[in-house]
């Protein structure tokens, strides 16, 4: 199964300050900014584009339950996850199961942009949080 880099997720404490930095210093364009209060997400997200390369800036909206808040407490701000686009998420999940790689089933969801996603279990990925995603109703990310 082919995989391509879809985006990098970065945990931040000050979302607007981070957006300003990406725009001013890196020349990024803000593609979208939205809030997700879904259980296990609880984050405000800014999608930044730099010449076709995407970065998701992630700030917690609930310091008790947000996984981003936990990440910031444990590791501080910085790269949270790396996301790879696959052709078919269901097929990729079956392949992972055959390879003995676990996922975090509670993270399986479809976001507001139609991207289906799931996180792989960091215990099976040498500690890196990896997201697999697909765009079943479109030709790819917006």
From TrEMBL:
GO terms for biological process: L-methylmalonyl-CoA metabolic process. Signal peptide: none annotated. GO terms for molecular function: metal ion binding; methylmalonyl-CoA epimerase activity. PROSITE patterns: VOC. It comes from the Bacteria. SUPFAM superfamilies: Glyoxalase/Bleomycin resistance protein/Dihydroxybiphenyl dioxygenase (SSF54593). The keyword Metal-binding applies. InterPro entries: Glyas_Bleomycin-R_OHBP_Dase, MeMalonyl-CoA_epimerase, MMCE/EMCE_epimerase, VOC_core. Residues 4-135 form the VOC domain. Keywords: Metal-binding. The keyword Metal-binding applies. Belongs to the methylmalonyl-CoA epimerase family. This is Glyoxalase. It comes from Pontibacillus litoralis JSM 072002. The lineage of its organism: Bacteria, Bacillati, Bacillota, Bacilli, Bacillales.
């Amino acid at each position: 199964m082919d995989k391509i880099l879809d985006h990098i997720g970065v945990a931040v404490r000050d979302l607007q300050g981070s957006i300003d930095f990406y725009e001013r210093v890196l020349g990024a364009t803000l593609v979208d900014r939205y809030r997700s209060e879904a259980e296990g997400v609880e984050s405000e997200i800014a999608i930044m584009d730099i010449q076709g390369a995407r970065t998701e800036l992630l700030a917690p909206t609930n310091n008790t339950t947000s996984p981003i808040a936990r990440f910031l407490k444990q590791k501080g701000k910085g790269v949270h996850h790396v996301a790879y686009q696959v052709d078919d998420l269901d097929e990729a999940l079956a392949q992972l199961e055959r390879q003995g790689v676990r996922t975090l089933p509670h993270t399986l969801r479809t976001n507001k942009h139609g991207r289906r996603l799931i996180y792989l279990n960091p215990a099976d990925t040498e500690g890196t949080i990896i997201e697999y995603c697909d765009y079943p109703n479109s030709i790819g990310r917006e």
